[in-house]
Amino acid sequence: MATMNTMEEFEALLAESLEIDTPQEGSVVKGRVIAIEAGQAIIDVGYKMEGRVDLKEFAEIGGTAEIQVGDEVEVFLDRVENSRGEAQISRDKAKREEAWDRLERAYADETRVDGAIFGRVKGGFTVDLGGAVAFLPGSQVDVRPVRDAGPLMGMKQPFQILKMDRRRGNIVVSRRAILEESRAEQRAEVIGNLTEGQTVDGVVKNITEYGAFVDLGGVDGLLHVTDMAWRRVNHPSEILTIGETVKVQVIKINKETHRISLGMKQLQSDPWDAVEVQYALGTIHKGRVTNITDYGAFVELEAGVEGLVHVSEMSWTKKNVHPGKIVSTSQEVDVMVLEIDSAKRRVSLGLKQTQRNPWEVFAETHPVGTNIEGEVKNITEFGLFVGLDNDIDGMVHLSDLSWDQRGEDAIANYRKGDTVQAAVTEVDVEKERISLSVKALGEDTFTDAVDGVKRGSIITVEVTAIEEGGVEVDYNGQKSFIRRSDLSRDRADQRPERFGVGDKIDVRVTNIDPKTRRMGLSIKAREIAEEKDAVEQYGSSDSGASLGDILGAALKGDKN
């Protein structure tokens, strides 16, 4: 009975020993290299089991296997026995299992892992993380796009795990996160050593349209185009090149965003400090046109000092043209200082003030009464515009075109481009107006004709035409019209047909209008005036004498 108990105990111990010594399939086991032959390592994994592993599985990516007989290694046991009676083991799978355990811990702790980029795939690169392969997106390689990743290949460096899925075997890593973290630490250190107003040296790293980024030793500062020079800078490339070392002043530091504003012009004297002394009002200076806009042109008086010539101050005569038709960029011009506002750093300049006012010159050389000759530049409803010297115009109003014709009729005789002669009648320099007269060159026939004639005068006219509304008459070459109602005091005799062309009749002048060049004539007014004179001289109808008696006595008196 005792013997049986002893056997049972021995079998239990043997079974326990077998369970302990026999490795479990699908696990990582330790083994010892007992031989190396035919490019393989023969490994004893215990319990009289041996397996073979290719030497390349012991080599690091891009390197050679460094393994010797007697070395202890960890391998993954796929099967206890294969078709050749050997254990089926793998060093790669062992490294992968080991790596995944290590990477999962690093991912959970948000710590960095070391790896090496060894291949390029669509959208990025592959990274060896010491047994596990991860994907490195192209956007996560560097803080800026990388054109050539060659120098990074095979180099051992730290990475940050962004995402991992063991079941699917996916790992995504970032090199950029490491660089940004390092960069942030470096920026904080550099910024901590900088103060506003400090002068430092930097290297131009990048140039844009609005400025340049300058590396101050691990941190970039923005040198805006307006802070590069006191003068106007159209593009930073005019004065800077990439890689150039420049001396700059720290203008502003934003501790929260770590943004640094830099300046170069602040290291130079401000030319505006002496502007009011050097450019006194009313003085004339030479300048260079730097920019042309719709409202004027900017003229550089010296480096850093620009003034604006407003379009209204560019030309005496060209009022509605674009400044680009008067001046051109880079042209040297003479300008006059009109106004200075040092607080706003503005100078108002005048271009036309450097030349004499052409209306003043014309007034001096062409006093009133001077005869001129010019070309008709434009015809409007109120007159002619005639081109004169120095690109100025004079105007002949409708009323100054002809003595004998209405202005509306006289202007029809002129065409654009015609050469006309006229007399200067007025020059208004302030309003820039010159009045001309064509008719002033001829004789005023109306004035000559009515010379000595006054309102109330009795004159003799000749009938030239009979019309239904009255008769047309002529007096010294001037036509006038007597209306039907003015042909007689007696309504029965107010008939135009009782007159004939060529008849001579006495009429009374009722009005003389020099503007319309017309005389008002009336037979009726003459008869009424004659009756009034007769009554005053020969009696009144109140005394009993009839009008016929009075007129008869008047006629008899005339005969005596």
TrEMBL record:
Q: Which SUPFAM superfamilies match?
A: Nucleic acid-binding proteins (SSF50249)
Gene Ontology terms: cellular component: cytosolic small ribosomal subunit
Q: Any idea which UniProt keywords this protein has?
A: Repeat, Ribonucleoprotein, Ribosomal protein, RNA-binding
For this protein, the record's InterPro entries field holds:
NA-bd_OB-fold (IPR012340), Ribos_protein_bS1-like (IPR050437), Ribosomal_bS1 (IPR000110), Ribosomal_protein_S1-like (IPR035104), S1_domain (IPR003029)
- Stretches assigned to the S1 motif domain: 26-92, 110-176, 197-265, 282-352, 369-439, 456-524
Q: Name one GO biological process term.
A: translation
Among Pfam families, the record links this protein to: S1
Q: Which GO terms describe its molecular function?
A: mRNA binding; structural constituent of ribosome
Q: Does the keyword Repeat apply?
A: yes
Protein task: Binds mRNA; thus facilitating recognition of the initiation point. It is needed to translate mRNA with a short Shine-Dalgarno (SD) purine-rich sequence.
- Family per similarity comment: Belongs to the bacterial ribosomal protein bS1 family.
What is this protein's name?
30S ribosomal protein S1
User: Source species, please?
Assistant: Pseudorhodobacter antarcticus
